[in-house]
Amino acid sequence: MTNRSRYFKTVGNTYRTSVKLQVSISSIVSYQLLLVSIILIVFIWWKCLILNQSGDVHPNPGPSSISSVSDSDISSCSFEYLSGMFSVFHVNIQSLKPKLDVLEQEVQPYDVVILTETWLNNTVQNSSLVMQNFAEPHRLDRPDRIGGGVAVYVHESLTSKRRHDLEIAHLEAIWVEVKIKSRTILVGGFYRPPNSNREYMERIHESIDRAKNTSINNIIVTGDFNLNQLNNTDRVKIDDISMQFGLHQLINDCTHFTEHSSSIIDLMFVDKKDSVLYSGVSDPFIPNLIRYHCPIFAIFKFAKPKSATYKTNYFGNTKTVTTTNSEHYYPKPIGLA
Q: How are beta strands 310-314 and 183-191 bridged, if at all?
């Protein structure tokens, strides 16, 4: 073979190799583009599916918290839970009797209502304090001076009894034992006056300790403690209650407002945080007040019997709850106890 023949043969082989390499590279690029396209299509489909299932999507969503639920959230989704799940409500009412009518409308969806600073005395009959769908209140009035006082209302559909054995002399607190089907719950309502001494705090501890030493595993402690969670000194006392008795404090938004300040002094402690479905602070319902307390509440994962039929104007919507008998229960969300 001549040198000229070898040259053209080498050139031909090189050209064929180059063509094959270009074809291989083109195939790889095409495959990569196809793979990227498939991944992009799957991603867009997944995002559309998530958006479709999420319902209302806000353009600038903020952080959410179980211990801070707005009234709009309650009106849109939580009324169902209030109807079917056990709930507790507390507010410093600052004189119960003149506010009874508006309070009666506000608390209809709840099961246990704790009021502090009731400002009652032995001249006020229980029969004058009855609210629709609730049993007569358990009361602890101040015997010697004006102000203070605690009252606890329990929905008439629930079985309850006062636990005097858990209460301490010279302490403004009431304990009530509530039965929900086979479950027993202890609910304590406390009022700690401002500037109380150390002995008063020790009485609070002793009362909670008595409750913890019962065989009842579901304990709720709430009220106006006049301990500001935003104040470092007070926070130590609040944390001491939590740590000593294995409780969790649920309220993290301000509950008390004056002309120049706001504070978190209305508190709610539970021994089982995972039993709480919702908790938070509601808007005040007493109009034209300069100094006021906001209500606090918690809804628990405890299904309850249907309550008596009632109608109420709840956050601008008229709601009707109708029952059949105690053997029928509200449906509960999947995964709730």
A: unpaired
